[in-house]
Amino acid sequence: MRILQLVDEREVVRVPRVRLAERFLARLLGLLLAPRLQAGEGLLLRPCRGVHTFGMRYRIDVVHLDRHLRVRAIRRDVPPFRLVPGPRSACCVLELPAGGADQAGLRVGELLRLAEPPDARVASTLRRWLQPGGDAPGHARTPAEEEA
Fold it and tell me: Is the dihedral of CA 39, 20, 122, 70 positive or negative?
């Protein structure tokens, strides 16, 4: 499961660790078998319009987002054993620990985007550089690398 960040239009990180659940089984299980969400963590279910909290042992905030990741609705402090339908415009749901929407400063109408965490970008760049024929700065390619 990929770990991303949720940032706003000014590039301010709102939720530093967002697990992305896009596969059917990951969306179906959601938070049921996952460790309890900590402050600054979330689970983004995509595609998904509504969720339930049956089998949950703690309260969560539910943020409904449209296909552009614009916040369409926020349900705060949802207790276990509830159905949480979303508005028609919603196509994904961000689950946060209770109080997480306020902690992140999320507001209805706000446009967000997913971004790679800085450490993931650095790791990806290093992997690319360390590959044979990588594009490391200052690396002069040999004739054998040019032909490959």
Answer: negative
Say if 90 falls within a structural domain: yes
The count of domains in the chain is 1
What tens digit of pLDDT does each residue of 43-59 get?
999 999 999 888 888 99
DSSP secondary structure code for residue 60 in this structure? E
Question: Scanning the structure block, which residue is given the tokens 């159905």?
Answer: 83
Q: Which domain holds residue 125?
A: 2-132
pTM of the model: 0.77
Instruction: Tell me the H-state helices in the chain.
Output: 24-29, 100-104, 118-130, 143-147
Question: Under a CB-based contact definition with an 8 Å cutoff, are residues 101 and 75 in contact?
Answer: no
Place of tokens 């949480």: 84
Structure-token pair, residue 87: 């508005």
